[in-house]
Structures are given as C-alpha cells and as structure tokens.
Amino acid sequence: MSKEALVELRNIHKIYRLGETEVPALRGVSLTIHRGEFTALVGASGSGKSTLLNIVGTIDSPTEGTVLWEGRNVAELSEKSRASLRNRKIGFVFQTFNLVPVLDVFENIELPLAIQPLTTLERKERVEAAIEEVGLKEFIKHWPDRLSGGQRQRVAIARALVTRPELIIADEPTANLDSETASRIVDLLLSLNKKRNVTFLFSSHDEKLMTRVTRTVRIKDGTIQADSQGG
Fold it and tell me: Among 6, 159, 163, 228, which is least packed by CB within 10 angstroms?
C-alpha cells in the first residue's frame, strides 16, 4: 500500500536578495513527506536545511516551484488560511528553545492553545498530557532558567505537541546539547513518532544521530544529494 503524501515540494527554488546580489538557497528541490514518517534532513551549515524547513512549514514562500499541503497548493491559500494551517497542522521545535522566561513550564506549553477554541479544562488536560509524554511532570511550575538544556528542549517539544499537529518540524533541536542529551532527545522524538504517528521532519548536521531514523535526506548547496530509507 502506498504511503499518503502530507507535504509535496515540486521543483522548489529559493533566492534571497541582498542588495543587488542574489543568493540561491534552494536549487530545484523536489521532496515528498509522507504521513507518519520520521525524516532527517542532513547537511552542513548553509546547505539550505533551514530554508527548506521554513518552506515546508509555510513560514517562507519559494521563489519558484509548488508546495502542496495535503494536496492543496499553499500559494493559492490566503494569509489567514496559511496561518490557520500552521496553527492547526504544524508544530515547531527550534535549537534555541524559544521559551518565554517569565512563564513557567505549564504556561509555556499552553501558549499555542490560546488561539484555539478550547475550554480552560481542555487546555489544562492537553498541557498535562504533553508534559507527561516528555517526562517533565515534576517540573510543571519551574521557570525556564531553572531547567537544563535537555529539559528546556523537552518543554519545547511538548509545546509543539500540545496542538496535536500533523507534522512537527524540528530545526537542529540537538545543536545546543551535549551528545548524551542529544541522543535522548532523538529517542524521545522517535518514541513520539511511533506512539502518536505524528510526522517528523528533523534537521541536523550530526551524523551520529542518523543511525536510528527511518529516512535520511542529504542536502548540499541547495540540492538534494541522496534520499535513503533506514538511516
């Protein structure tokens, strides 16, 4: 049985303009992310990883090419519809955690739910479930500056999970962590992928973390060099 396509990129080009200079970030990238997959995007700094993730996540638009989300052309969506797609379908995890320092763990995770039509009880149940899944129940009232790097990243993962998205995009989520903590974070992401069947697109330049992922896409100089199953 063929896998269901969640996101399709067709011949994507992205050019950034710096004054009169054109800087090509992506050069004709075509890629399909299937529902339920755990895909690692691997490449050196400047290879185009973050640009590709931003286009998949509809944060940025391609200069040329087509992005299909569940078969719908993103370019044909209004900005309001695009924002709704991001809020309902996509969770983001960043290497710098992006936690709000004046909010505790519970409040940081609850933030994405503020714009969703949920009752106070529904929000509380969702946040507590997400905290349980990332193993931070005893830290629910802690401030971010009282957490380790690995714990902060777990909060960021719970925040991405709490909206129950179709896809979680994680841009270098282990870059600021030591190797042991990074390995545990990847284990957590993989377990959530299997348990929830949520689709993950995860970028890294760390080859050691690639041995356990189900699909590896290698990118260099804005083009895909290899696409392999099984790490």
Answer: 228
Torsion of CA 53, 59, 60, 66, to 10 degrees: 70
Q: Residue 39: CB partners within 8 Å, gap ≥ 6?
A: 33, 200, 201, 202, 213, 214, 215, 216, 217
CA 128 – CA 132 distance, rounded (Å): 6
Exposure on the CB side of residue 156, measured as CA atoms within 13 A: 27
Q: CA-CA distance, 83 to 150, in Å (whole number)?
A: 29
Prediction pTM value: 0.89
132 residue type, one letter? E
The answer to whether position 32 is within a domain reads no
pLDDT tops 60 at residue 190: yes
Which CATH number is 194's domain given? 3.40.50.300
* Continuous segment of H or E residues that includes residue 202: strand 199-204
Give domain status of residue 94, yes or no: yes
What range defines the domain where residue 215 resides?
A: 37-58+82-229
pLDDT band at 219 (very low <50, low <70, confident <90, very high): very high
**8 A C-beta contact, residue 35 and residue 6:** yes
| Residue 219, beta-bridge partner list | 224
Count structural domains, the chain: 1
Does 158 reside within a domain? yes
